[in-house]
Amino acid sequence: MNGGLIPLEWKQTVENKNKETRVPGMESTLYLGKKASNLDGWSFSTRSIFFCSGLTKSSAGKMKVYLTVCFMLSTFILIEAVGHFHDELFRDSDDQEIVYRVTRGAHSKKKDGECRYKKGPWSECDSSNMQKKTLTLKKGDSSCEQTKVISRKCKKACKYDKGDWSECDVSSNTRARTDSLKPESDSSCDPTRTISKKCKKVCRYSKQAAWSDCDPATGQKTKVLVLKKFRSEVAPQQCEANKKITKPCHKGSGHKGKGRQDYDEDE
């Protein structure tokens, strides 16, 4: 690349009168001014912007090539800019240390390095339910901060003894239990907590009844199940005393028994 930007086969002609540079294949003329005609000393990013700014009047065929080159240049510039971010958390080396990786720019003479910090103890939780820890520099170069402060939200150690579930409430179809706080828990925890959930409607029926004859009109046969028992959380009135079920008369119809139902059949 000539000057790190324009290929050698692209001949430049610089006229002394108006200091203009012409690039073959471009109808537009790029006026550089008195000092800008010499690209030496320009940064790569500046030269890339200059190159891409002269593509407005290029032919359609060459425009595609130029735009591809400009896209690649823009990607490189973006990567170069991101490279300047530093102090990225790298890893916890052990229980006593935290290591930060220092990432420097693409044109920096210094190599990427590490800042090794010694962990301090966590502070008490403040009024905003946050606690802090101070890190002290143990090993690293001059780019490392001497101390760093990290913070986190406090986790309450709330442990409860589970209570007994109540009977199912027919109106809401839910039941609840009240749990009590264990003595070793944090004093700021609620002394009790209430948990509720929906009742499972499981009605158990006897299947001693025989199937009826096939109904020619519907191609179905029926069986009447008699309620045998129900789970303790289900109110008796939620289960039907008798339940009528049907199934296709012929085999191979895809019927696979009771399927997903809210009842079970017992012998």
Automatic annotation (TrEMBL):
Biased composition regions of type Basic residues, renumbered to the chain: 246-258
GO terms of molecular function: growth factor activity; heparin binding
Cleaved signal peptide residues: none
GO annotation, biological process: mesoderm morphogenesis
Region annotation (Disordered) ranges: 246-267
Superkingdom to which the source organism belongs: Eukaryota
Subcellular location: Secreted
A cellular-component GO term for this protein: extracellular region
Annotated Pleiotrophin/Midkine C-terminal domain residues: 155-201
InterPro entries: PTN/MK_C_dom (IPR020090), PTN/MK_C_dom_sf (IPR038130), PTN/MK_diS_sf (IPR020091)
Broad class of where this protein is predominantly found: secreted
Keywords associated with the record: Disulfide bond, Secreted, Signal
Membership in a protein family: Belongs to the pleiotrophin family.
Classification via PANTHER family: MIDKINE AND PLEIOTROPHIN 1, ISOFORM A-RELATED (PTHR21050)
Protein name: Pleiotrophin/Midkine C-terminal domain-containing protein
